[in-house]
Amino acid sequence: MDAQRRKRINLYKKIIVAFVLATILIPLILCVALFMQVGALKKEVSNLNQLRNEYYTKFEEINAALQESLALKADAEAADNQENADLEQIADVSKVTQGLEDELVDEAVVTTITDKAVITDNTTEEKNTTDEAEVVVKQAKPAKEIKGTVYLTFDDGPGANTHTILDILAEYDVKATFFVNGKDAETYADEYRRIVAEGHTLAMHSYTHNYSKVYASVDAFMDDTIRLRNHLYDITGVVCDIYRFPGGSSNTVTKINIRRFAEALDAEGIVYFDWNVASNDATNPILSVEEIYDNVISGVVNRDMSVVLMHDLKDKVTTVEALPLILDYLKTNGYEVLALDKDVTPVQHVKLGS
Ligand code: ZN
Q1: I need a surface site. Which of 63, 241, 282, 348 has the fewest CB within 10 A?
Q2: Separation of 247 CA from ligand 1 center, angstroms?
Q3: Whole-number Å distance between alpha carbons of 38 and 14
Q4: Is pLDDT at 9 greater than 90 in this prediction?
């Protein structure tokens, strides 16, 4: 009886111990398992955070680059528009001036002839009067033989078309001016050197031709210009002293007064040239051969001295095609075609000190 009772008590004890152990151990094990899981999740969250930050940084960089390229595009478009607007204005003014000049010249010739005729009439017979008048007309003719001087200028080269342009200029035996940019010396050494070797004027435009950088400050502007001058000297041995502002001196891109840049150029002995005839070949899409030809010829015929703006750029193929037609006209109509030098009175939209 006793033994049986003790056995039962032992069994109860075992059951109680097992129950106590179970209620302690099971939550403990569960707790440990949960802690491990929380740890793993924390690690995963921090990995995701890091990844998100990396993507965010990349996005910022791409966005910044995009904004910069949009700003540059806007700058370039603004400069192009300004170039064209200025040229139209200059062309109008010049047409009016030329018209007045022509009238004055005509009047002067008529007056001279009349005066001579009157004097002769008083002293000799009628026949002699006619002779005198003829002589005066004949004397006036040779002066009209050279109708004008044309300086063809090519901006933004050298490039894929430079050799073809040089071939055409050689064929017509005329000289031009190349306002070049800072292109890779190894790729374009031949073009730079050929411009010089064939007697054309190697002139400076811009090393980077990046409006935002070039016009950021007077120092940045001169750094770009001197860098280009050194680049050209290293390749050709020529110290260039003629310059053309990207967008012209009348560009609206720069926030700094253009005269400050002009003074800095002057201090380095550099003269800048704008243009008074535009081929308008910088427009997009490109103009036809006929349009470029008409733009150049209609500008040239009104002037004694023309500085013609054209571009030496890969996609400006109609410029190259129009060139022989333009030269045909100039040569058969009494124009001399020359390269710019420092002795030529510069055509400047904004003049230093004005
Ligand atoms: Zn340019």
Answers
A1: 63
A2: 6
A3: 36
A4: no
Distances (CA, A) of 108 to 115, 136, 154, 282: 10, 12, 38, 41
Tokens representing 207 are: 């090393």
pTM over 0.90: no
Q: Which amino acid is at 135?
A: V
What is the distance in A from the centroid of ligand 1 to the CA of 171?
26
- Cα gap 198→173, rounded to integer Å: 10
DSSP-derived pairing of the beta strands 242-243 and 177-181: unpaired
- For residue 104, report the distance from its CA to the centre of ligand 1, in Å: 38
Q: Which of 140, 179, 122 is nearest to 312 (CA)?
A: 179
From CA 289, how far away is CA 321, in angstroms rounded?
A: 6
Beta-carbon count within 10 A of 35 CB: 10
Phi, psi dihedrals of residue 330, rounded to the nearest 5°: -60, -45
Lowest mean pLDDT segment, chosen from 2-11, 168-177, 181-190, 250-259: 2-11
Interval between CA 105 and ligand 1 midpoint (Å): 37
